[in-house]
Known about the structure:
alpha/beta
Amino acid sequence: MESITIAGGPRLRGSVRVGGAKNAALPILAATILVPGEHRVRNVPRLRDVDTMTRLLEILGAKVERQGDEMLIETGALSGEEAPYDLVKTMRASVLVLGPLLARAGQARVSLPGGCAIGERPVNLHLAAMRALGAEIAIAHGYITARSGRLRGARIHFEKQTVTGTENALMAAVTAEGSTEITNAACEPEITDLARALGGMGARISGAGTASIVIRGVERLRPLDHAVMPDRIEAGTLMLASAITHGDVLVEGADPTHLGAVIAKLREAGARVEETPAGVRVEGPGRPRAVDIKTGPYPEFPTDMQAQFMALLAVSRGLGVIHETIFENRYVHVAELKRLGADITLDGNLAIVRGKPALSGARVMATDLRASASLVLAGLRAEGETVVARAYHLDRGYERLDEKLAGIGARTGRIKERL
């Protein structure tokens, strides 16, 4: 098992390019199920979660070829309709095949994903959407079994905004008979990117990126050819790396229109943030000011950046309060940040962070994707060496983040360990 080593101290300088968005690539790859033919998806990051979705597509009968950052997916003949537990347990986004399988094959069998380290994310909202479109749903022996003829347009109202639920409903509805309206839809840019990809296939979608999306079903689609949007969470993490190290870094390809809440908090913390045609440049302060953060659905502050910003607050001047509203268990990284010397007190869904002049390198354990990123950022500012065990968590959503940081001056490495 690999661990990441970070020697704290260097100020990061230079430019680094952000890759394609994991959370956009996964539903777009799932959308290739919708129609037979050869699909081309560009700007696909090399990540564990992408590998998992690739294996799932192959289990369903697709042929997948990778050429650099492009993927060619041939979906001429599907030979299966099941997403098995062994894959779903490693990546909850596997449930995204439910909608496209129903739309194309009229049946699907998808393992229930179970719990998650950052809190429960039940699939009941997905199932309610599929039922509204006319599918018959049964749950037995740990699997969701869904069947339908041609799906029918419907009004789908989500009781709670759900990104993957909105994406599943979008993919199921594009070939449904009649029109579908999704209300209280999630508004994330990744949903807009999926809608663009589906539009390129011939789907008729309006309102993506707002809370009300209308889909007018079409009889036929064509294979997709689409470039995945830049990863706004990777971009935000790299911006935080510059800020926490008093650095000066241009994050090439970062889209500032997707990062408004993060940029606002960085500026409030004392960083100089410049939006340029090439990306976003961040100059970090000598020591950041403490700020308060409340996570929320897009365009509010993203929960996927909460852990990374906590690392910044740990070395700030003053006291900052984080209010996590999305996932009930998303403070699992707090105990590990404390091992580095951070002063953090938890009170329900609040984290009170009292900034310190410096952290101290130590051995820590990654518990989930964004938690691992926060530990790497904290290690950049800690005195001595930090070792982040279980690097596979980081590799689920960041394409060799440690190497990108090394390219702008960080002292990072990887070691093989037996845990």
